[in-house]
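Mods, move this if it's the wrong board.
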Amino acid sequence: MSERVAFGSRSLHLKKSRKGLPGYHGQHPDCKRRKEKKTGDVAILKRDDRYVYYLITKSKYFYKPTYDNLRKSLEAMKIHSLKNAVTRISMPKIGCGLDRLDWNKVSTMLEEVFEDTDVYITVYTL
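Not the wrong board. Structure tokens:
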């Protein structure tokens, strides 16, 4: 995700509604406020007892992320998850679709970042 994050707006470049997820169509109290994040940060939405993490890995949506920026975002997600007792995270093969990062490198990075934690990560594919 790029630096300019506007939850609940077209800035997320989403074409379909994702019913039940926060951050879309004004479902979350933070949706109306613009959140300025920098590359390497993580934007976080809370819904009930769950968190939705948006990794900020590039400054513009059409740029490609670097492995370094991905690692910084993962580290930021790790810090938040540990502070908030998050023990399970589900995610797609991040950075490996249109962003063209190598999944072998990304999966190794995930293991390295979360190796000293009890956070269980599930990676899914569609």
